[in-house]
């Protein structure tokens, strides 16, 4: 059991301090000393005053259980240190030792002591209840070490611009959550994308399953696999995989020029030509960013727009190439966005 003084130190060390480092700077700490405050122009949108606490504010803005907790004790949370009080409450409820057991590198604090942004472990803790450091599905072995990922479908999803830059790969448990709400990560900030169409999070169709399985054999996300892997992909999808004839026939058909590769789009067209994903051709979408300066007219409001989700053929509609769109393309490769405002929403 901890004494009160020991408990306070354990919480502070977990959140702020890297072993052997100096104390966190006063300016960085000040950025986190804000309350959970709703915008004057969008009464259900939390406002973020400075960079840093989005790692708490963004998850609290999507998750209904957290929002209910904030509203029920709003007089407590809206005060000067409401964000930190809320974070410390989550940590003490989860228990410090349990969080330490889940974090991959226990020398890394939940808040970066140099830049002030929340770690992926902190985001995962608030989104999934587990402070694991990775975003892939399940656990992986690397050089004899077990690296922990996400083990169950999350209620709220997570997509990141870092995946479009090929720095990481988000798994299906975060990409396909229970509700059509996704936290969007940039290099420095978190915002929220959401819709009202529950069909967006329906169980995956056979073609979506095929895309996911194909991509497990294409870890670099090149959009193709070596033709020698075609048989394994077909077996994984319970397609006919008799190698002496059918697989050889499919290799010839899918690689007529003999390049030694199989492209994703022809593969899907061959085996799932008429699959309906159940997703409407267009649907309303919304984006939330808690920073005033990142919003149109510097007012924290939900940006509204329309999403078009097209097939894997060449899309007929092309909209601007923005960070929000590139982030969403890690979930819907051919999504197009038409926003109601002249200025597209910002990830930062």
UniProtKB/TrEMBL annotation:
The keyword Repressor does not apply. Its EC number is 3.4.19.12. Pfam families: MINDY-3_4_CD (PF13898). GO terms for molecular function: cysteine-type deubiquitinase activity; K48-linked deubiquitinase activity. It catalyses: Thiol-dependent hydrolysis of ester, thioester, amide, peptide and isopeptide bonds formed by the C-terminal Gly of ubiquitin (a 76-residue protein attached to proteins as an intracellular targeting signal). GO terms for biological process: protein K48-linked deubiquitination; proteolysis. The keyword Signal does not apply. Belongs to the MINDY deubiquitinase family. FAM188 subfamily. Hydrolase that can remove 'Lys-48'-linked conjugated ubiquitin from proteins. This is Ubiquitin carboxyl-terminal hydrolase MINDY. It comes from Salmo trutta.
């Amino acid at each position: 059991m901890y004494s009160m003084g020991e408990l306070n130190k354990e919480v502070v060390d977990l959140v702020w301090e890297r072993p052997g480092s100096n104390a966190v700077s006063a300016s960085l700490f000040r950025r986190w000393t804000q309350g959970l405050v709703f915008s004057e122009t969008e009464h259900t949108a939390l406002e973020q005053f400075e960079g840093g606490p989005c790692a708490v504010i963004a998850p609290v803005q999507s998750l209904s259980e957290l929002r209910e907790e904030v509203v029920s004790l709003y007089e407590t949370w809206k005060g000067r240190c409401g964000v930190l009080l809320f974070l410390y409450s989550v940590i003490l409820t989860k228990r410090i030792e349990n969080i330490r057991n889940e974090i991959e590198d226990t020398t890394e604090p939940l808040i970066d002591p140099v830049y002030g942004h929340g770690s992926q472990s902190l985001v995962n803790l608030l989104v999934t209840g587990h402070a694991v450091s990775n975003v892939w599905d399940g656990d992986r072995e690397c050089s004899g070490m077990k690296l922990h990922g996400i083990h169950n479908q999350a209620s709220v999803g997570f997509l990141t611009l870092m995946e479009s830059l090929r720095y990481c790969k988000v798994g299906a448990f975060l990409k396909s959550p229970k509700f059509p709400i996704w936290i969007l990560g940039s290099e420095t900030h978190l915002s929220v994308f959401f819709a009202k169409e529950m069909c967006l999070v329906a169980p995956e169709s056979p073609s979506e399953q095929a895309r996911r399985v194909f991509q497990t054999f294409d870890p670099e996300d090149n959009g193709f696999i070596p033709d020698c892997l075609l048989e394994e992909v077909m077996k994984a999808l319970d397609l006919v995989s008799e190698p002496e004839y059918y697989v050889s026939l499919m290799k010839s058909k899918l690689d007529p020029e003999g390049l030694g590769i199989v492209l994703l789009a022809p593969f899907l067209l061959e085996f799932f030509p008429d699959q309906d994903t159940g997703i409407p051709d267009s649907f309303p979408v919304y984006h939330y960013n808690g920073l005033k300066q990142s919003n149109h007219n510097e007012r924290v409001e939900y940006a509204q727009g329309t999403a078009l989700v097209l097939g894997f053929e060449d899309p007929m509609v092309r909209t601007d190439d923005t960070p929000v769109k590139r982030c969403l393309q890690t979930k819907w490769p051919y999504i197009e966005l038409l926003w109601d405002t002249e200025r597209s929403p910002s990830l930062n």
